[in-house]
Design brief:
The chain has six helices and eleven strands. It is α+β, with helices and mostly antiparallel strands.
Length: 221
């Protein structure tokens, strides 16, 4: 597929239903049996942390095949100082279009946009085997841990402004919107066509492996 065939543009309100459906297709059975990322996308656009300018879709021949959204988060240093950063997710591409570079295009495009908007760093949770292709590295390199003060293999960071994270040591706290109410997510999913739940898939095993790859940071004073 030629990248010139892929159009990236700002999402419109009229795209919201399509992107929610797309996200369900992209994540179904990926991390766990079923998924709740489509519910997350449904509620994230109403969150105070949502960055409307960075809600971008990928189109091919007028069909939306991918979507990425961003929220504001914060780094809380070990002395209690807060620094604003941004995070993205869900990042979704329809299964039949995965492996064609669309996700990478959405990442690189929005990285540049986020920098232009004045944001200094992006922190995400994801598989380092994938996101390292786009310049993300272990947040531990910057002495940044999770909200519960752990170094995690899945916590990744990239500086948009060189040196932005060099002298910040602390914990990444993403928006509370990511603490999904599982009961609400299941209720929301009832409005969609029923899909088969599958377990013990390779992507699910990798997810569990990453969850276990944590080590404690030093004690806070």
């Amino acid at each position: 597929m030629n990248s010139r065939d892929i159009k990236l543009r700002k999402a419109k309100i009229s795209d919201y239903k399509t992107t929610v459906e797309l996200t369900r297709e992209a994540f179904w059975n990926h991390y766990v049996p079923g998924c709740d990322e489509h519910y997350l996308l449904h509620i994230i656009r109403d969150a105070d942390s949502f960055i409307n300018e960075l809600d971008i879709v990928a189109e091919i021949d007028g069909k939306i095949v991918g979507n990425i959204v961003y929220t504001k988060g914060k780094l809380v240093t070990d002395d209690g100082t807060c620094h604003e950063v941004v995070s993205f997710g869900p990042l979704a591409v329809l299964p039949e279009y995965q492996g064609k570079g669309i996700g990478g295009m959405l990442i690189e495009h929005t990285k540049a946009m986020a920098k232009e908007l004045g944001y200094k760093a992006i922190l995400i949770y994801g598989d380092p085997d994938y996101y390292s292709r786009f310049g993300f590295t272990a947040a531990e390199k910057f002495k940044i841990g999770t909200a519960d003060n752990m170094y995690a293999a899945a916590l990744l960071a990239i500086e948009l402004l060189p040196g932005a994270l060099s002298y910040i040591s602390g914990r990444f706290v993403d928006d509370a919107i990511y603490n999904i109410d599982e009961a609400a997510a299941k209720e929301f999913d009832k409005a969609f066509e029923q899909k088969e739940l599958m377990d013990n898939l390779s992507t699910q095993k990798r997810f569990l492996q990453l969850l276990e790859m944590k080590t404690p940071r030093y004690e806070l004073f």
